[in-house]
């Protein structure tokens, strides 16, 4: 059972990584008909939504793209920033989706932001409590530690609707503003779907890790 709880999530993580990498490689090859770059598409979406104050900058790495609400900045990796592929437009628009979520105070993203400091403290404290509990054979203490560690799980769970919703908003904006054609929409959808699957795999991996720890603590207690 323990071995299965290690192997299954490891395989899922590997498959989801392969899926996103191969989707990215594939959709990096298709140029969008409008010929617009990721950064310009993002600028257009932001301006159309009254968000011209949001900055767009370039960052290193591959698929390191993100929106940071604390400095109101979208960071796009080189290929996404300067590229005009389906992948570039999809990812850039997805980050704009997150900006719009913040503007509209979309409930899961508000919750997610509020959870960040709580999760950081709870997971570290929980881990320490669990270790002390296990080492001193105080079963209840180990369980309390584990429950605190589950804050990470809640965070990852709230992340899921946030990611799917940002992609839906991205697609709506891209069509509405004529950045992509209806014919290009399925390719954008596939790219964004692959990205969302990585979050689902991470959630499942964390879930099985917690379950495995619970089973181990429970066995030690008996
Ligand atoms: Zn996202």
Q: Can you characterise this structure?
A:
By secondary structure, the chain is mostly helical. The chain has one domain. The chain contains eight helices and three strands. Bound molecules: zinc ion. Zinc ion is lined by residues 94, 98, 163, 166.
For the structure shown, list the relevant keywords.
222 residues; binds zinc ion; three-stranded mixed β-sheet; mainly alpha
Outline the fold blueprint.
Elements: H1 2-27, H2 38-48, E1 55-59, E2 66-68, E3 73-77, H3 78-82, H4 86-103, H5 107-135, H6 139-149, H7 151-176, H8 185-221
Parallel strand pairs: 1-3
Antiparallel strand pairs: 2-3
Helix pairs in contact: 1-8, 2-4, 4-7, 4-8, 5-6, 5-7, 6-8, 7-8
The chain binds zinc ion.
Sheet with the most strands?
Answer: 3 strands, mixed
How many strand elements? 3
Question: Helix share of residues?
Answer: over 70%
Along the chain, the helix and strand elements come as HHEEEHHHHHH
Strand content: 5-15%
Radius of gyration (CA) equals 20 Å
Q: Return the domain count.
A: 1
Round the mean pLDDT to the nearest integer and report it.
Answer: 95
Concise summary:
The protein is mainly alpha-helical and 222 residues long.
